[in-house]
Design brief:
By secondary structure, this protein is α/β, with parallel strands linked by helices. The chain is built from 15 helices and 13 strands. The protein has a 7-stranded mixed beta sheet, with helices on both faces. Strands 8-9-10 form a 3-stranded antiparallel beta sheet, with no helix packed on it. Helix 6 packs parallel to helix 8 (about 180-195), helix 11 (about 270-280) runs antiparallel to helix 15 (about 335-340) and helix 12 (about 290-295) runs antiparallel to helix 13. The longest helix has 17 residues, at about 180-195. It is globular, with a radius of gyration of 21 Å.
């Protein structure tokens, strides 16, 4: 698999020959199973074949149960300079409900060690967990802040099909997810992190000055990205691509010199809808100037017309010719964005 990843990096370098690489992100699955030599080998391959900025952001996704002190020391000696740790919660009952491999003590212990070796750390927290009180949610947030992490990604609990959580809910063992509870806890999160000096720069992401995720910011700002490995997605501004998911088929195709890639062309309407969706989620909003320049006056008129009712309901507002969500509208961003979409007629 490592050799196949290296081969794909080399095979696709022409796609980015006129681009600068500012971030390298090891995500999806559990990339922390890679040893530091393998991580370095992949990074070296990128640096040899692409135009990489002097100090790229290099992120490794990890789980608390992976992070012994020895492992953290190994990663700290590698080119990786940012960790994204899947904490989810500091409460045992929450972790059991979500079927996480780590326990609450491991969550705290790994952060205690990791913050000694890394200054750039992001953690994930989940809100809207059934039977989690607002007081417990505040305690989760304050526990995270006590470790001094500069970035927090937080998401509402979703019930995926064919999971243990779905089965527990269907059997009545635990309550179903409550949207009202999730919204209340989202607003608690916004307020608590604002008081702690975090900027709410994207719907699910909060960072201190200088610690916004460069990798994810590139997605939301519509920049090109290259996804390497099974199931990885790519975007070049006008097309979206994704690799096949099957590991064995992926390796077989790469070894034959073929890219296991499916490509979908994006229409003007697709690109408009995508920009509205991603832009509205961020502090940068949806620029009327960009809409007019890239998509035309008809799209701009449509956007303004569709936005009117949300402005009257205090869910959207206009600032410097840019459409943004209000505090009240943030939790409803995705639903609002879908009402601003155009039908794909071109």
């Amino acid at each position: 698999m490592i050799q196949a990843l290296i081969s794909e990096i080399v095979l696709r370098k022409k796609e980015f020959e006129n681009e600068q690489i500012a971030t390298i992100y090891f995500g999806g699955g559990t990339p922390s199973v890679l040893n530091t030599d393998e991580i370095k080998m992949l990074i070296d391959t990128v640096c040899t074949n692409y135009n990489v900025v002097e100090n790229p952001e290099i992120t490794l996704e990890v789980n608390p149960d992976d992070l012994s002190e020895k492992r953290i020391l190994e990663i700290a000696k590698s080119p990786v300079n940012r960790l994204s740790i899947g904490i989810q919660s500091f409460f045992e009952k929450d972790l059991k409900l979500m079927n996480r491999a780590h326990n609450a003590e491991e969550a705290k212990e790994c952060l205690s060690i990791a913050t000694r070796y890394f200054s750039n750390i992001s953690i994930d927290l989940i809100y809207g967990i059934p039977n989690t009180t607002h007081e417990e949610w505040r305690e989760n947030i304050q526990t995270a802040l006590a470790f001094g992490v500069p970035h927090i990604s937080s998401y509402a609990l979703t019930v995926e099909p064919k999971t243990a959580l779905e089965s527990f809910i269907e059997k009545g063992i635990i309550d179903n997810v409550d949207d009202e509870l999730a919204q209340e806890q989202f607003l608690i999160l916004v307020d608590e992190l604002d008081k702690a000096g975090f900027q709410h720069y994207e719907l699910s992401n909060f960072g201190k000055e200088g610690f916004f995720s460069k990798n994810n910011t590139a997605y939301w700002q519509g920049k090109k990205y290259l996804g390497i490995g099974p199931s990885a997605h790519s975007f070049n501004g006008k097309q979206r691509g994704w690799n096949i998911a099957n590991n064995a088929l992926y390796i077989k195709k790469i070894n034959a010199g073929d890219l296991p890639l499916e490509i979908e062309g994006l229409t003007v309407t697709d690109r408009y809808n995508e920009y509205v969706m991603t832009g509205l989620r961020t502090i940068w909003g949806v620029s009327f100037h960009k809409i007019k320049e890239e998509f035309g006056a008809t799209f701009l008129a449509y956007l303004k017309m569709q936005a009117e009712k949300f402005i009257l309901e205090d869910l959207l507002y206009i600032e410097n010719e840019t459409l943004k969500t209000t505090r009240k509208g943030k939790f409803l961003t995705d639903g609002i964005a879908s009402d601003l979409f155009k039908l794909n007629l071109s």
